[in-house]
Amino acid sequence: MRWCAAGLLCAATLAASAATTAAQDVRGTLSHTGFYAELRPLAQDTVDRSLVQEIDPVTFRYQGLPIYCQAQDCVRYRADEVASTVSGSLDANLTAWGFGVTGLSATASLRLRERTGGELLWPRTDDRIDLFLAYAQYARSEVRARVGRQRILGGLGRTAFDGASMVWTPRPGWSGEAYAGRSLARALAEPRNSALAGLESFLPDRNAWLFGGTVRARPTDGIDLTLRYQREIWGDRSGLLSERASMDVRAYPLDLFRLDASADWDFAFTRLGKAHLTALVPISGSTVMLEVTGRRYIPYFELWTVWGFFSPVPYHEAQVRGTWSPNPELRVWLGAGYRDYGETATTTVLSPLEGTGRRGLAGATWTLADRLALRGEYRLEWSAGAFFSGGDAAATFEVTPDVSVSLNGTAFQQIQEFRLGEGTAIGGGLSMDAQLPWYGVRANGGISVYRAGTNNRELQPDWNQVRGFWNLTVPIGDDPGLEGARR
Amino acid sequence: MNPRILNSGWGVALALFGLILVGLGGQRSTLDPTPRSTSPDVTQAAAVPDSLDEFTHEDHDGLFPLCTGCHIGAETGSLDDMYPAPASCATCHDGETEERVEWEGPPVLQTNLDFDHGEHIRENADEGEDPLLCADCHGDPDPFVLAEPRVEATECLTCHEKPADDEGHYVEAECTLCHVSAASSTLGEVRIAELPTPPDHEADADETFLAAVHGEDAETRGQERCVTCHVRDQCADCHVNAGRVDEIQALPGEPMHTTFPALEARYPTPETHSATRFAWYHTGIAEDDGSNCATCHTSNSCRSCHIEPVPTPVSSLVTRDTVTAPGAEVVADAPESHESVFFMERHGTVASTEENSCATCHEPESFCGSCHEKQAEGGSSYHTPNFLLGHAADAANAVTECATCHDPVAFCRTCHVDAGLQSRGRLGPGYHDAEPLWLLRHPQAARQQLETCASCHTQNDCLQCHSQLGAFGISPHGPGFDARAAYERNPVVCRACHIGDPFGGGGE
Question: What is the ipTM of this complex?
Answer without folding.
Answer: 0.88
